[in-house]
Amino acid sequence: MKHGSVRMTLAALVLFLLAPVQAEHQTSIAVYAIKAKGKADASLGPAMTSLLIYNLTKSTRLKVIEEDALKTVLERQGQNMSDLCDSTSCQVEIGKLVQAEKMVVGELIKMGDKFMLTLRVTDVQTGTVDYSVKKDCTCLEDQLDFLAQIAVINLRNHYGENLPEPTSPPPVAAPGQAAPAAATDSPFAGRQNLALTAKVAVSDYITLRGSVKSLTSYKPKYLNDGVILACENWNCPCWVLPMNKTGWAELSFPKPQTISAVRFLPSNKPKEEGSLHWGMLRDYRVTASSNGKEIPFCSGEAAVFDKPIWISCQHAPIVADAVKVYVESLHGNSAGICEIEIFGPE
Prior knowledge:
The protein is α+β, with helices and mostly antiparallel strands. It folds into two domains: 27-158, ABC-type transport auxiliary lipoprotein component (Rossmann fold, 3-Layer(aba) Sandwich); 183-343, Jelly Rolls (Sandwich), CATH 2.60.120.260. The protein is 19% helix and 35% strand. It is built from five helices and 15 strands. The strands form two sheets. Strands 7, 8, 9, 10, 11, 12, 13, 14 and 15 form a nine-stranded antiparallel sheet that branches. Strands 1, 2, 3, 4, 5 and 6 form a six-stranded mixed sheet that branches. Strand 4 (102-111) and strand 5 form a beta hairpin. The termini are far apart.
């Protein structure tokens, strides 16, 4: 009798282990074009829409409908993203067309020095408001990503996540101020910048030098010349990708070098080319090459930032012929690299 009980228990355990795991349901959600009101520049609406979508894509509980899908559906209906509908019934119908369960609509309002972001989440099936959030900050345009971040954190927490909320926006660099390229202000101060003697190659994309020009006018030496020029809107000689693209910059050494640290300064999009000064870098990956073989050095997801920020990574010492930095630009915006620095062991 005892053996039979054991066999039944084992059989039940096997069946449990073999049973298919039910994937956690992700609520599909779409973000309708945010409207800029009050003193807020009209261009801030599309920019805030992209920022909200970007921050929502990090959620484990929400499945975000891409902005392109929304635009395609609207075009088929003879509308575009500028034809904003204010009624709930209109917004619900658009949500149904893109097969979203929830629809996010909202406004960005500027009153004096204060920006206010209000979001409402409507259930597409019932037409009722599930959730609403209002956040504000006395801040600059360059700090509006803070509003997007905290609003989305509140929204994600409403749907079951548990994320801490930042309490204040990050500081902003003074207008025209550029971060120095020298290593004296870095965690690698006092170590030789091996990038200065390297040969530079970049994937074939556009560059920014006052205005958009072809790659043929770009001199890759700017990526490792050790100098970052102070210039208006942070529009410096940088190698830049178009929106939603992946590209790379490679630095090859005259002879193999032992390296243990790499840092690079992402570019940002000048105001006259878009609407905000943010660099919209999404993902990055750094590799070191030895005898033609690429070895992973570091990788990560770069948060949308509002000032020049160096991205640094360290690795156990490795002998390499070259270093390659891959970057991906955020949907709807461009991003690239202004400067790369490479260091050996201490």
